[in-house]
Amino acid sequence: MSTATSASAPDFEPRTAAILEQLHAGGQLKRLQTIEGPMDATVRLRGYGEVACFCSNNYLGLANHPEVVEAGIEGLRKYGGGTASVRFICGTFECHEELEARIAGFTGLPAAYTFTSCWNANEAVFPTLGDPGDLILSDELNHASIIDGIRLAASIKKGLHKGVYRHGDGDDLRAKLAAARANPEVTGTIWVVTDGVFSMEGDIADLPAIRAICDEFGALLVVDDSHGTGVMGKTGRGTHEHWNLPATRIDCLTSTLGKALGGAAGGYVAGSKAMIELLIQRGRPTLFSNALPATVACSANKAIEILEREPQRVARLRENVATARKGIVEAGFEVLDSPTAICPIIVHDTAKAIAMSKRLLELGVFVIGFGYPVVPEGHARLRVQISAAHGPEHLEALISSLRQLRREFAD
Ligand SMILES: Cc1ncc(COP(=O)(O)O)c(C=O)c1O
Fold this sequence. Notes:
Helices cover 44% and strands 15% of the residues. The chain is α/β, with parallel strands linked by helices. It folds into 2 domains: 27-56 and 311-408, Aspartate Aminotransferase, domain 1; 66-309, 3-Layer(aba) Sandwich (Aspartate Aminotransferase, domain 2), CATH 3.40.640. Pyridoxal-5'-phosphate binds at residues 117-119, 143, 145, 195, 199, 224, 226-227, 256, 258, 267.
């Protein structure tokens, strides 16, 4: 590892190198794998060849769908390579409006606005829409983009309060809301924020119960359904559809275009017309950052069209999830139970998770081991993600490789 020093800050390079050495020594250094072809049920990985891919968010198999690819090429031809501007200056293209109309129709909410990522969307929502005197209560296992968005809101808007409730714990949420209503410093809106599908546990938020608690205390409900969109519910509308909760019972829905919906990049916020208008007027990511690339907007639009036309993709995904979960258990591993496409196998130790992931790759199966700081210390896991693109042969490869892993790695 390089120990070169910077002339202006001589302590920086050695300090950085020391952290990296420490990660290396602890077996926690992540190695980026290079993919040499499209994202699909299998991918061509540099140094490994063709492997079955069980770690992408390509839940519906649309990332390399010919129509999605073609729509992107058409978008590139029609609108060129770059928007070269933020939206309110001269960066709003027809394809953005078309995509946002499609998203609003798909979600069943009055309006939608796109961002270059859902990270960006979450970073826009809380600092823009929150105000001093508000309280934002967040599930403790919410995604990092929600956590950082709320932190940013609290640091920008002095007097905006933030709090955390225990994961999926309605009693704790109710207690925190009751305390907030009795707190004279909480004079504004109370927000409750939850992932629809939790990205590391693969479990789901009980949205009807959370909505009922919000109603009891007059709180606003925000749901980030990045891992639920295209996956949950009969037609893939998301976690609210799974629960038969009308979309309109969610006040603010954020999600990504970077997973089931084509998988390129981009995110969105869907909500009331006034909410979306305020994001357009005042959101810092909206005002100071470029629009979603046109090619991506066109591909995402097509991906949603395909999902609307072919809900059977969601059914296929569900069947694959059931097969994979059963197989993982039969191979001798415990998987956190849930209907989602995220199947975490807890192995506790980060180094072990990374070693197991490496071995799986040698066996032709691409599964990533997650450790600290992505998950808390001691909760390292292999996160197996299922796609509608997987055929029986891919699922069999996964299960037989896991059986082999069970023989090779002791508890
Ligand atoms: C719940 C949740 N929100 C937001 C994001 C960020 O999405 P994007 O890749 O569009 O920034 C993710 C991605 O992992 C996520 O799981």
